[in-house]
Design goal:
By secondary structure, the chain is of the alpha/beta class. Helix content is 45%, strand content 26%. Helix 5 crosses helix 6 and helix 7 (243-274) crosses helix 8 (294-302).
């Protein structure tokens, strides 16, 4: 049974949570968990990364976390977009996603780091969840991680990890549910059904209520945050008719109405895009879900049962952590989702770590070992350097003696190569002479057969005989004997004053057929007969015949 231990760090908008999670078989055990609150102006997005750097430094130096870790960044730091692309092979999918995403996001694609998660595929279209983060944000985040003493294994988005958590916590759940994870800066809505999931991130969270309180009381954001926590935790004692209490309650009611409207809008959007039914149940997660009256308001507005999500149902906790599981369950769902990513079927997850940064980190982690190896390698030859130097001197003398012996051998080798070239040329000449000797007999026989055919034809003589040879690069060679000659025509003109060409043609064709009877000839071309001399009053007919020679019996 395989087992592994991983460090997962969830860098949220208001706090950073680090957990060491041990997985064995199909179970998870949280052995150590530490949370560091972020101290910054929550209304300033640019200050988040600096606060995260301080928290990571505390995790490393005060709580002794170190090494390779899987990081999670919040939904407000990523762009989440559902797009549809044509169904293509998986190898070509990234190119199509990149093209479609460029048409649907407000940034040039080269300015973001992105990954995708397939939501569904019907064979015609593929529904894809596109998740991206600005490249400079990822680069700065990685730099702070390295500076704090960690190395990055993966950078996941909190947006999709609740899907893994709900599958791991409720493996037998088969009804359509809506998981609402309310964070500080944004709220993640996860719709789960039997076919998969649909996700939407809305920019409405606990800080929205804080800002509303700050505007109503005329207080700075940080002060309003303190008042919010004390009032809704019961630390401030207000009477029922106190104006401050009424003002805070009004802000709370306004926040819950806005949350209900966004959830209703998201449900409508979900049903339109997915063609699915409405959720049958709502699960709440995140610290913002503790707002008094929120669960009742959502149950009334959505007419659904509302429960708190418990991601720890199938998780074993360390003894110290088990003291307050209810509070822990509200902030650990993303960590459980990341730890269970490789333990549930059809899991969800992305990796926003650029390949070049990953390679650089891997190389950086190996630098100490490479330096030690280089030093050892540099020092290793010194103990034997003197011995090698003495052996080298002896080998040099032997080499000089060997070189003196090689010189005459090289001269003989050159002579052997020259003699070999001469032998090859002489062999080729002999082969040609042998060919002439063998073909001489063939020519004698062929001329005898040719003479017999001319005698038989009568009144015929030859003017020339030419052998035409073709030697193609590939295939068999072909030989032709071209005969040019003349025939004496003794016949006089017929009754019409003309010459009977048919009779003369038969004589020539008969002679051609006699030529073809030779064992050296396989066929012949149609004769070329020149009638001009005969028409001009000469009783001589010029002809040309091409005979095809048998390549097995060449001339």
């Amino acid at each position: 049974m395989s087992s592994s231990k991983q460090l997962i760090i969830n860098c949220g908008a208001s706090r950073v949570t680090a957990a060491e999670v041990f997985s064995s078989g199909g179970s998870l055990q949280v052995e150590k968990l530490v949370t560091e609150s972020l101290q910054y102006d929550y209304s300033n997005d640019d200050a988040w990364l600096g606060a995260v750097a301080v928290a990571l430094d505390a995790l490393h130096h005060h709580h002794k976390f170190s090494g390779k870790a899987s990081f999670i960044i919040p939904g407000n730091q990523v762009l989440t977009k559902t797009i549809r692309i044509p169904h293509v092979e998986e190898s070509k999918r990234a190119q199509i996603i990149a093209f479609e995403a460029q048409q649907n996001i407000p940034y040039p694609l080269h300015e973001v780091v992105w990954d995708s998660q397939v939501l569904g595929d019907d064979g015609v279209e593929t529904e894809v969840l596109f998740i991206a983060c600005k490249s400079n944000t990822i680069d700065e985040f990685c730099a702070e991680v390295i500076r704090a003493g960690f190395s990055v294994d993966t950078i996941n988005a909190a947006t999709v990890l609740d899907y893994n958590a709900i599958q791991f916590a409720y493996p037998t759940l088969d009804e359509d549910v809506l998981l609402i994870n309310i964070g500080a800066r944004s709220t993640n809505l996860l719709f789960k059904n039997s076919d998969g999931f649909f996700v939407r991130n809305i920019q409405l969270g606990g800080n929205s209520l804080t800002q509303s309180i700050a505007d109503s009381l005329g207080k700075p954001f940080a002060k309003a945050e303190q008042i919010k926590h004390k009032f809704f935790c019961g630390e401030l004692d207000y009477s029922d008719d106190d104006s401050g209490a009424k003002l805070l309650t009004t802000c709370s009611d306004s926040f819950m109405r806005r949350m209900g409207q966004e959830i209703t809008r998201s449900i409508v959007n979900y049903r339109r895009q997915k063609g699915a039914g409405a959720p049958k149940r709502i699960l709440l997660s995140g610290r913002g879900a503790l707002l008094e009256g929120l669960s009742e308001q959502l149950s009334t507005s959505q007419k659904l049962g509302v429960d708190f999500f418990d991601p720890l149902q199938n998780v074993t906790l360390d003894a110290e952590l088990a003291l307050d599981p209810a509070s822990l369950s509200l902030e650990i769902s993303e960590i459980i989702g990341a730890a269970a990513q490789h333990m549930v079927a059809d899991s969800a997850g992305v990796n926003l770590l650029p390949d070049e940064v990953k390679l650089e980190m891997e190389f950086g982690s190996k630098k100490p070992y490479l330096m030690v190896a280089a030093i050892c390698l540099a020092l290793a030859p010194w103990p034997v350097f003197v011995g090698y130097k003495q052996l080298g001197s002896a080998y040099e003398k032997v080499g000089q003696a060997t070189q003196a012996q090689i010189a005459p051998l090289q001269t003989r080798q050159s002579q052997i190569r020259d003699n070999t070239d001469k032998a090859v040329k002489i062999s080729e000449s002999i082969r040609r002479v042998e060919g002439l000797v063998n073909s001489k007999t063939n020519w004698i026989q062929f001329f005898a057969e040719l003479q017999a055919s001319l005698t038989k034809a009568e009144d015929v003589w030859l003017d020339s005989l030419e052998v035409q040879r073709e030697m193609p690069d590939k295939g068999k060679a072909s030989y032709e004997v071209v005969i040019e000659g003349q025939m004496l025509v003794r016949e006089t003109a017929d009754e019409t004053g003309g010459i009977d060409q048919e009779v003369i043609s038969r004589r020539i064709k008969g002679m051609q057929s006699s030529f073809e009877d030779s064992k050296f000839i396989t066929s012949s071309m149609p004769p070329n007969i020149n009638w001009s001399d005969l028409r001009n009053g000469l009783n001589v007919l010029t002809f040309t015949i091409s005979l095809v020679v048998d390549t097995a019996k060449p001339l």
